From TrEMBL:
It comes from Bremerella cremea. This is Uncharacterized protein. It comes from the Bacteria.
Amino acid sequence: MNDIPRIDPLILSDAYHRILELGMENLQRFRLPGRFDYLAIEIDHLHNLPHYMRESNVYVHAYYFCTTRPFYIEGLDSVTAIDTDFLIRQYESSWQQLREGLTPFAVAINMKEYTEKL
């Protein structure tokens, strides 16, 4: 018996696609020397997104939203060479889409040990 909640990945794929698109644009924009700290943080943030676009396991999406996303935001606190508030603002609407898509599963998600609750 499989008790893992499932979601149609298409519900969230547009948000992930937009996050990936913005992230790749930012990697191109901020690739200059002296910004390697940011580049490492952004790459870590983005590297699993193609997998998430095909994933139906709600807990995988919850891990991104409730652990990876906060870890990314926290990592940006150490970056001084660029306007990280700008980066966060770019992602906010996509993150809101993810939150809305995951909200029907909030009780199950919040029972798990993630960095943040949904």
